[in-house]
Fold this sequence. Notes:
Strand order of the largest sheet: 1-2-3-4-5-6-7-8
CATH topology: Porin
Distance between the termini: 37 Å
Radius of gyration: 22 Å
Number of domains: 1
Mean pLDDT: 85
Strand content: over 45%
Number of strands: 8
Largest sheet: 8 strands, antiparallel, barrel
Amino acid sequence: MKYTIPTIIILFLSSVYFSKSHAQFGSSFELGAYAGPASIKTDYGERYHFEGYVGFSAGIVNYINFTDISGYPRRHRFFNQHFRMKNELSFIYTTLEHTGKYVADDRTSENAEKLRAMTGSTLVVNLTTGFEFHLKDISDYESSYYQTGFNWSPYVGIGLGLSYYNPEMESSLGNWEEDRSILYGKWSKVGTVNMDPGTTFSTTFSTGTRFKVSEKSNILLEANWRLFWSDWIDGLNARAVENKYNDWSFVVQVGYIFQLD
């Protein structure tokens, strides 16, 4: 696993190089960065209880636009004018703790104490490739700055990612690796806790908008939901009804995109 993050970075840089090379054949190339608050919903906490879990996310992204490619049949014009290809390298880091009614101050049972004592964190690095569908004609948007000095382009997107995760956990009651009895019942069983790093696939769904602020500069505002294909992102995976869904993340990000070609 120690080579996973370098491999992901190399793959992203390769995609950037491919995108830049492809721009020589008529497509345009953009590079950007973003950051924002992130939340990962895991086996920590009560289901449908969304307080807590606020972390941080940042990333770099490159886009391929197809609007300038000549020689395509006319039937492909809609795709060229409304779709962008997106390659993204991002990370999410968040701390984790149990929240909800089962750890409320008025709960004084041993189980409540064990839940309150459990805290954790996870780092997730994602390499994602996907497409954005822009509601507005991309060529019209790119030229709109000369007409109005300001314009926006809403979009929706979907992508497939390779995700590396590295969870950690501790208990204020002691060393849980030496004494599993200090963990809440379902996690005291063998096979329900694994703090080893791992990789999995993920699916992303996004919606957002671009704001053109100069001929080649754009401000990005986006909300992104990522569904991991694994329930081990936080290192917990108890076989219980309340933990039957895989982990997922939600990110709100603000970024800057610059058109290079």
